[in-house]
């Protein structure tokens, strides 16, 4: 029997994982995994602790739009040029997490097909690889380009469009923040802050 386990992670610009969460089967929607993750609960309890200067996480459209979680606009054929530009810039910036995943899967090729008898250890193994990935980056692993290229071959994107039922006030604040970022980007010459 084969299992597919999801790895959800947040990374910084240097491709280091800031948070990693694994254990759900890949059939579970990303937003549900996110809502059940430790980081989600922690941020919801005290967003200023995680984002003291108004920072935020960029995600794909599967996630909820919140003040601290910014998603692209869903394109139903009615986006303005500014919104389309915003989506392009979010997509370009989000390539950082894709490179981090590619580097992880290139560096630890066995993650693609972990042959393990104990399913309960699979998520622990994945998280251990995330820690080792960060250690390799800390010590200047010089094979990054090679690993990223190999890892990109192992990544299969599964993007689903689903409307997430979140607290209406949080959704409103997230949408307002995304709109403000969109306007600021267009004023600042297309640079994501």
Automatic annotation (TrEMBL):
Its cofactor is a divalent metal cation. It holds the Pfam family DDE_Tnp_4. It is found in: Nucleus. One of its GO terms (molecular function) is hydrolase activity. Belongs to the HARBI1 family. This is DDE Tnp4 domain-containing protein. It comes from Lasius platythorax. The keyword Nuclease applies. Signal peptide: none annotated. Its main location: nucleus. One of its GO terms (cellular component) is nucleus. The keyword S-adenosyl-L-methionine does not apply. Residues 2-134 form the DDE Tnp4 domain.
């Amino acid at each position: 029997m084969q299992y597919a386990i999801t790895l959800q992670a947040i990374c910084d610009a240097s491709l280091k994982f800031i948070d990693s969460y694994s254990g759900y089967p890949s059939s579970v929607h990303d937003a549900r995994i996110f809502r059940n993750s430790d980081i989600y609960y922690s941020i919801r309890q005290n967003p200023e602790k995680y984002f003291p200067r108004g920072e935020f996480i960029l995600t794909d459209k599967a996630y909820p739009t919140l003040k601290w979680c910014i998603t692209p606009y869903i394109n139903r054929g009615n986006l303005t040029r500014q919104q389309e530009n915003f989506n392009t810039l979010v997509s370009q910036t989000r390539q950082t997490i894709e490179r981090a995943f590619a580097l992880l899967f290139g560096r630890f090729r066995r993650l693609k097909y972990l042959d393990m008898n104990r399913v309960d250890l699979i998520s622990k193994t994945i998280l251990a690889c995330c820690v080792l990935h960060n250690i390799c980056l800390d010590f200047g692993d010089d094979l990054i380009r090679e690993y990223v290229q190999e890892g990109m071959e192992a990544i299969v994107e599964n993007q689903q469009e689903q409307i997430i039922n979140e607290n209406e006030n949080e959704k409103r604040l997230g949408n307002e923040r995304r709109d403000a970022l969109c306007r600021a980007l267009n004023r600042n010459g297309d640079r994501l802050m």
